[in-house]
């Protein structure tokens, strides 16, 4: 396929900083007219079937990635294990606006301006791809720009697949609200081989400098950072959440929005139940005795995904009925497929990626030239084990029944990865299958956003790895979007609290994944909670049907749970009733969790904290009861 190499006049009409305009005037600029043209560029000058992405580093060629042309898309792989997932400590702030994140000058002992100038000079001497996009999706997004080396066109393809294909003609003259720059060799020449993503903000422009080719911290979460920055200025949030419209066999509709730290079950909320060969659902397997519990659902609810990861809570879509209204901030989803290990485990996803309407971009998966890439064939890390972070970028339109209009949220669930807890090895894994919490406690859980057990999404820092290996907890922070925020924690906490208070008809629920006490449950608890709440619809759970959880942070526990006439054993709702746990082990785990929350919440008690937020945190520190939290933010749903 031939690619039009002429620079359109639209580039000359953009409102750009002078230094950026100089790059576009000096470089060999390619502006693909169609996605097909951009896809062809990603295959390299020969069109594949294998293309190595190589850069000159101090006079030596260094391979950063390779691209393989498969029947259903591109397989992108990185030579280094380290580059196959997001480094959680890669964000650096170059400006002087308020932030709680590491500033570039404090980490590297110098200002960013000279490196920024070097980056632009390097791009000016390259063959580059320039693509426009709307940060925040096609409908409510902010016109933006990406400048990428042509041999890394797969990166630009990923970005526009996530945010939605558009053209300069469609956008017309504009001043970019954000610009993404990609300069891979600087990882070696300036940053000792580490992933570094530098954010340089002003009141009107958010620049993202990506010094690596894994798109997670830049093309994906970097755009999340842009939206959070804009929202902090304008007074609204982009939540780190998935959401799904659940339609029961009786045609009741409930919209569930699921939040949580990385690995907390956001993608899984939009997935069907995993069933055994005989159709039953495996609820749990006791890690001590090996005994199992199953449940039979002849017909489960129909799922219509609304959002996958970046959930836009833009003021333009909010209603007046007391529920939060959400829509997708993306046109495509960066789907992790580590839980696909063989054929038939997720028919919907398998259909979407094996027989797509257009060729896709796959990461960390084994691709053979011109053969169909299978989503359960993951790249092996250097230790011989499957890479835990295989990904594919899939357009929302590839999924059946996807919802394309804003939806009001009935229930906001929050997922937490829990380790096994037993009498012999007590841990904090004592959350029951489902807990209802008042809005104040829902805010507290989002402030801390604990990330425990094994998390497949990102590489851990050495300190975090040590904590998690020994049953400890790590806080991902405010709303679980804090890793991507360039602002301050207190400003984010205030925005989140105001959002929660402004939606009094939205209910709040906690649900664990991986373990409930001594039972391994995977994501079954999350799926059963979704089914249970959908079947109840808008009806409230009567106060007499609830009991305060033994740990006050868990709010209330249902006395019983019945789904399709079947009763869930009480020991799944109250893990202290399990013979392998008991009250002592439960209390030990609850003490770990409570101490962790008290430690993490201290940092929010600054002068700028909302007064209601201060009272809520002080109630946690004072050992308040669930009734105390309810009195601060009464439940109206």
From TrEMBL:
It comes from Cellulomonas fimi (strain ATCC 484 / DSM 20113 / JCM 1341 / CCUG 24087 / LMG 16345 / NBRC 15513 / NCIMB 8980 / NCTC 7547 / NRS-133). InterPro entries: DUF4914 (IPR032583). The lineage of its organism: Bacteria, Bacillati, Actinomycetota, Actinomycetes, Micrococcales. This is DUF4914 domain-containing protein.
